[in-house]
From TrEMBL:
Catalyzes the conversion of epoxyqueuosine (oQ) to queuosine (Q), which is a hypermodified base found in the wobble positions of tRNA(Asp), tRNA(Asn), tRNA(His) and tRNA(Tyr). Monomer. Keywords: 4Fe-4S, Cobalamin, Cobalt, Cytoplasm, Iron, Iron-sulfur, Metal-binding, Oxidoreductase, Queuosine biosynthesis, tRNA processing. Its cofactor is cob(II)alamin; [4Fe-4S] cluster. PANTHER family: EPOXYQUEUOSINE REDUCTASE. It comes from the Bacteria. [4Fe-4S] cluster 1 binds at C198, C201, C204, C258. Signal peptide: none annotated. Its main location: cytoplasm. TRNA binds at K233. This is Epoxyqueuosine reductase.
Length: 364
C-alpha cells in the first residue's frame, strides 16, 4: 500500500463524510480505529495454545498478520469498521423452532443471501466514493476474507464491546449484525473504543447447550455447535450430539438469551430475508433433499459452507434427537446405506437413539 501523495485534506471532515456515505450504502454504523491490537494478540495466542480453535488451522496459519493490520496490508494506518443488521422481523420465533424437535434450526444470520459478497461490494463502493473525493489512496476491503481480528477492530472503533460469549454487542443494537473492514493508509481521526457492559450477567454461559463458553470471554470452539455443524469435517463427537438438539447449521442460543438484544434492529436489507422457508422447515423434508436440490436451494447462501455431506450429517443428528415417529424412522432408514461413511455413522447413531427410546419407554 503506497504512502498517499495527496493535497491538504481535512481528515476530520472526511471521516464525517465517510460515515454518511456508509449509511447511504446501507451500513447501520461506522467507526474508525488505529492498528494497535497488542492486547488482543496475547489473547489470540493463548486461545490457540489452548487448542480451542480445533481444526480451524487457518486461525494460526497467518501468524501475527491477524493482529497486526500493517503487516497484512503494508502502509495501513487506520481501519474503517462497518456493521450491517441482519435480524429478521420475527427473530423471537427462533425459540419456538428450537423447541420443536420435528423442525430444523438454522442460525438466523444465514437464512438469506450470503453477506460476504454483498458487504464487500458495498465497501468497495465506499472506497470509490472516497477516491472520488480525494483521489487515489491505499485501501483494501475485508469481510471474513483474510486474517482480521474484526471484533477487536470494531470494538476499538466504538461499534460495541466483545461480550462474554465472544460476540460483539452494541448498546443500541444488540448483536445481530455483520462486520466488515476497509483498511486504509489515510490518517483519519479515530473514534473512542467501546466500553464493556456485561456486568455480572452470565446468561450466555449458562444457556450454551454444549457448555462451549468455558469462561467469560473464552470460547472453546471444539464444543461450539456452530463449529460442529459448519467448520468440523468428519464425525461429530458422540457426547455432543444430544446437546445439539435440532440445530443443523449454527446456533444462536447465546444471542437469543442476551438482554441487550431487546435493542436489536430489524434488517432493512431485503437480501437477508429468509429463503425457501428455512427458518422453520421439517427435518424429514430437508433430509430428503438430493445433492442437486441442496445446491440449488442454497445457491448464494452461506449454508453451502457445510457441504452436502455435512448437511446430511447434521440433520441425521437432529433426527436422532427428534420425537420418534414413522416418518423420522423412514427418513433415517432411507439413508442407512448412504455412500458417505460419515453420513452412515450418524444415521446409525440416530437409529440407535430411537431403538433405545423404545426400550426405556421414552417416546420424547
Amino acid at each position: 500500500m503506497p504512502a498517499p501523495d495527496l493535497p491538504a485534506i481535512d481528515y476530520a471532515a472526511l471521516a464525517r463524510s465517510i460515515k454518511q456515505w456508509a449509511r447511504e450504502l446501507g451500513f447501520a454504523d461506522t467507526g474508525i480505529s488505529g492498528v494497535d491490537l497488542a492486547r488482543d494478540e496475547q489473547h489470540l495466542q493463548q486461545w490457540l495454545a489452548d487448542g480451542h480453535h480445533g481444526e480451524m488451522d487457518y486461525m494460526a496459519r497467518h501468524g501475527a498478520k491477524r493482529s497486526r493490520p500493517q503487516e497484512l496490508e503494508p502502509g495501513t494506518q487506520r481501519v474503517i469498521s462497518v456493521r450491517m443488521d441482519y435480524a429478521p422481523p420475527d427473530i423471537g420465533s427462533a425459540w419456538s423452532v428450537i423447541g420443536n424437535g420435528e423442525l430444523g434450526y438454522i442460525s438466523r444470520y444465514t437464512l438469506g443471501r450470503d453477506y460476504h459478497k454483498l458487504m464487500r461490494g458495498r465497501l468497495q463502493k465506499l472506497a470509490e466514493r472516497i477516491r472520488g473525493e480525494i483521489g487515489e489512496f491505499g485501501h483494501r476491503a475485508y469481510v471474513d476474507s483474510a486474517p482480521v481480528l474484526e471484533k477487536a477492530l470494531a470494538r476499538n472503533a466504538g461499534l460495541g464491546w466483545i461480550g462474554k460469549h465472544t460476540v460483539l454487542i452494541h448498546r443500541r443494537a444488540g448483536s445481530y449484525f455483520f462486520l466488515g473492514e476497509l483498511y486504509t493508509d489515510l490518517p483519519l481521526p479515530v473514534d473512542v473504543p467501546a466500553t464493556e457492559h456485561c456486568g455480572s450477567c452470565r446468561r450466555c454461559i449458562d444457556i450454551c447447550p454444549t457448555q462451549a463458553i468455558v469462561a467469560p470471554y473464552r470460547l472453546d470452539a471444539r464444543r461450539c455447535i456452530s463449529y460442529l455443524t459448519i467448520e468440523l469435517k468428519g464425525n461429530i463427537p458422540e457426547e455432543l450430539r444430544k446437546p445439539m438438539g435440532n440445530r443443523i447449521f449454527g446456533c444462536d442460543d447465546c444471542q437469543l438469551v442476551c438482554p441487550w438484544n431487546k435493542f436489536a434492529q430489524q434488517t432493512e436489507e431485503p437480501d437477508f430475508a429468509p429463503r425457501h422457508q428455512l427458518d422453520g422447515a421439517r427435518l424429514t423434508e430437508l433430509f430428503g433433499w438430493s445433492e442437486d436440490e441442496f445446491l440449488r436451494r442454497t445457491e448464494g447462501m452461506a449454508i453451502r459452507r457445510t457441504g452436502y455431506e455435512g448437511w446430511l450429517r447434521n440433520i441425521a443428528v437432529a433426527l436422532g434427537n427428534a420425537p420418534r415417529s414413522e416418518p423420522v424412522l423412514a427418513a433415517l432408514r432411507a439413508r442407512a446405506d448412504h455412500p458417505s461413511a460419515v453420513v452412515r455413522e450418524h444415521v446409525a447413531w440416530a437409529l440407535q437413539q430411537h431403538e433405545a427410546s423404545t426400550v426405556t419407554g421414552d417416546e420424547r
